[in-house]
Write a structure and sequence with these properties.
The structure holds two protein chains of two kinds. By secondary structure, chain A is an alpha/beta fold. In chain A, about 50% of the residues lie in helices and about 10% in strands. Chain A has helices spanning about 20-30, 45-50, 55-70, 80-95, 95-105, 120-130, 130-135, 160, 170-180, 200-220, 230-235, 240-245, 255-265, 280-295; strands at about 5, 35, 75-80, 115-120, 145-150, 180-185, 225, 255. Chain B has twelve helices and no strands. The N and C termini of chain B lie far apart (about 40 Å). Classes of the chains: A alpha/beta, B mainly alpha. The complex binds iron/sulfur cluster (2 copies).
Chain lengths: ~300, ~180
């Protein structure tokens, strides 16, 4: 078993992105990535906190970093790019002593800023790696052509995120290739989907997410693959709204990359939360199977 | 185009305050327009981000703080990543938004209410409670949930819980908000 990571699931993992959470845990277990839950973790503040104040925002993130320090672990990983950004930004900015002092003055117990933060994606690439993943595949998804979409903040800004390429990230592409899927070109990998404006400004989401769906379809992707709860929700749950607003007729399944890895590892579909997706992925998966069988015969 | 009388309307204190709070040097911007070219929100902004930088150099406080752009920026980090002068533009916009808040500007009320409802939920439960957040948003905006048509899609999935997930440390989180409020008085 590899060294243990402290695990920060993030609030949406308990609700709207529970299938991301379920499938992340399932594949980490299957791949011997050892996750230890942070006891009593709290919200990192997400986007709303940093729009109010940077010290407040970092303090909300830092409370959790403090809990990790107490666990005696040196690295925390999270599936959610928004949590990732907040945790990483807190670590980055607390490099400034004066700022760290202000953050600590908001906390019950001061933190030492000793913890490293990574995404689950980064842990999978660095700790497991595409080769080892490929060896464990029992059900290659070779008939499935996917468009990997990373979202805007997983890799940006590079000085803070320190992972993969900030204009053309490839970590998810590599993992998709390792499970046998075909990766469609997707030049809008790091464009914004409309973020958290879904409730207050649907028009913005329809336009930005609509562009992403158009491109995936134009490049003959059978599905999109995401690594972010907000991106997934905008593209999947809001696909009907987008279709209505942009006069399109997409019916594009939008997976979490962890769900596809889980499928390829032969994990039980119910442990991957496939039934939680709004656009039914059944058709695309059956089509992929048919193509795989055809190629094999 | 509006003509600015720079000699009368330039607010130098505003410029230094933004520089201080963002840790960025505003005068480094040479108006290449890279940030605006890459900003996915330019179509929705009333002032494109590079123009915001220019107005900032000219100390045009009121114009900037009353813009819709400060509320619509998604902090996607495209501008920050692509600025040839290494300016953390997104951080500047964030700081402008903090100021707009403090000084009572809120040109995108729905956006502000959504964020406020989110944070209230965190202050109360320690984690965000999504259903509660939506209910509170609807109550405050008086808009019957404009996402009502999504209900039948998401409710059967069992993803929206009807009760919050409360943590032991919710009081510790509430204290963070409390101390922040006191410190910023
Ligand atoms: S990219 Fe940088 S230098 Fe160019 S206009 Fe924007 S802020 Fe100014
Ligand atoms: S961070 Fe804001 S201003 Fe900068 S590119 Fe993104 S949306 Fe535009």
């Amino acid at each position: 078993m590899s060294p243990a990571y402290a695990y920060y699931p993030g609030c949406s993992g308990l609700g709207t992105s529970m299938e991301y959470e379920q499938s992340t845990r399932a594949i980490c277990e299957a791949l011997d990535v050892n996750l230890v839950d942070i006891p009593d973790w709290s919200c990192c503040g997400s986007t709303p906190a940093h729009t109010v104040d940077h010290t407040l925002s970092c303090a909300l993130a830092a409370r959790n970093l403090g809990l990790v320090e107490k666990m005696g672990l040196d690295t925390v990983i999270t599936p959610c790019p928004s949590c990732l950004t907040n945790l990483k930004t807190a670590v980055h900015r607390m490099g400034d002593e004066e700022f760290m002092r202000r953050v600590n003055s908001l906390l019950d117990e001061p933190v030492g800023n000793t913890v490293r933060v990574k995404s689950v994606l980064q842990a999978l690439i660095e700790d497991v790696g595409p080769e080892k993943l490929a060896e464990r595949v029992v059900r290659p998804l070779s008939g499935l052509r996917v468009a990997p979409y990373y979202g805007c903040i997983m890799n940006r800004p590079p000085e803070v995120m320190e992972f993969d390429d900030h204009e053309n990230p490839v970590a998810m592409d590599r993992l998709m290739e390792a499970i046998g899927a075909e990766v469609a070109p997707f030049p809008l990998k790091v464009e914004c989907c409309g973020a958290s404006f879904g409730v207050a400004r649907k028009d913005v989401v329809a336009r930005l997410s609509g562009k992403l769906l158009d491109l995936a379809e134009a490049n003959q992707a059978m599905a999109m693959v995401t690594a972010c709860p907000l991106c997934q929700m905008n593209l999947d749950l809001r696909q009907g709204q987008i279709n209505a607003a942009t006069k399109s007729q997409h019916e594009m399944p939008v997976f979490y990359y962890t769900q596809l890895i889980g499928l390829a590892l032969g994990l039980d579909e119910s442990s991957l939360g496939l039934n939680k997706l709004c656009v039914n992925p059944g058709l695309a998966l059956r089509e992929a199977e048919r193509k795989t069988a055809e190629a094999a015969s | 185009m509006e003509i600015l009388d720079l000699s009368n309307s330039r607010d130098d204190e505003f410029i230094s305050q933004v520089e201080e709070e963002s840790g960025q040097r505003v005068r480094l911007c040479y108006q290449c327009g890279n940030c605006t070219a890459g900003c996915p929100y330019t179509f929705a902004f009333d002032i494109p981000v590079s123009r915001m930088m220019r107005l900032l150099q000219a100390g045009q406080k009121d114009q900037i703080l009353s813009s819709h752009s400060v509320w619509l920026c998604a902090t996607c980090e495209s501008c920050t990543t692509r600025c040839p002068n290494g300016i953390d533009v997104a951080r500047i916009v964030d700081v402008l938004r903090h100021m707009a808040r403090r000084e009572g500007y809120a040109t995108e009320r729905g956006v502000k209410v959504f964020w406020d409802s989110f944070l209230e939920s965190v202050a109360k439960h320690g984690r965000v409670y999504e259903m509660g957040l939506l209910t509170s948003y609807i109550a405050k905006t008086g808009k019957v949930w404009t996402d009502a048509e999504l209900g039948p899609r998401i409710l059967p999935k069992g993803k929206l819980h009807l009760t919050p997930s409360r943590i032991q440390g919710r009081e510790a989180v509430a204290r963070i908000f409390q101390r922040y409020k006191e410190a910023s008085k």
